């Protein structure tokens, strides 16, 4: 099912995270989870109250999620070792497991963390994806990654 692109403008505060999940309900649980994790990362690592833009679009069997914040210098870092006792640090590992591709694009005065997920099937099922561990990679000012197959 084709969905129109969606853009959400918000302030990065904890209450906004549940609003993002509600707004993305029709895109599926994986998109909701990834968006929630990325907005939470802005709050946790950059601070509350920053302007954030969340964009979702669907094309060619993929759903692309983008979260833009005003700090081009603070880049996401996938933590390699998270223990069962750690209370945080799993967000990017979840995104890594769900996304077909992911990356970061930096611009003057902002960065966009993005991921592409298999679009939901009409019956509400998620399409297959290769998943798997991997790291963020740089290509100039663009940082992207395709998990190994």
Give a brief outline of the structure.
By secondary structure, the protein is of the alpha+beta class. 24% of the residues lie in helices and 31% in strands.
Q: Can you summarize the main beta sheet?
A: 7 strands, antiparallel
Low-pLDDT windows of residues? 122-149
SS-derived structural category? alpha+beta
Give the N-to-C terminal Cα separation: 26 Å
Cα Rg = 15 Å
Share of helical residues: 10-25%
Number of strands: 7
- Helical segment tally? 3
Average pLDDT score: 79
Q: What is the strand arrangement across the widest sheet?
A: 1-2-3-5-4-7-6
Q: What is the ordering of alpha helices and beta strands?
A: EHHEEHEEEE
Q: Name the beta content range.
A: 25-35%
Shape call: globular
Describe this structure in words.
By secondary structure, this protein is of the alpha+beta class. Helix content is 24%, strand content 31%. The protein has helices at 14-23, 29-46, 91-98, and strands at residues 6-11, 51-59, 62-69, 101-107, 110-118, 137-139, 142-145. Strand 4 and strand 5 (110-118) form a beta hairpin. Helix 1 (14-23) runs antiparallel to helix 2 (29-46) and helix 2 (29-46) packs antiparallel against helix 3 (91-98). The longest helix has 18 residues, at 29-46. The two termini are 26 Å apart.
Fill in the keyword field for this structure.
single chain; alpha+beta; globular; disordered C terminus
Q: Topology of this protein?
A:
Layout: E1 6-11, H1 14-23, H2 29-46, E2 51-59, E3 62-69, H3 91-98, E4 101-107, E5 110-118, E6 137-139, E7 142-145
Antiparallel strand pairs: 1-2, 2-3, 3-5, 4-5, 4-7, 6-7
Helix pairs in contact: 1-2, 2-3
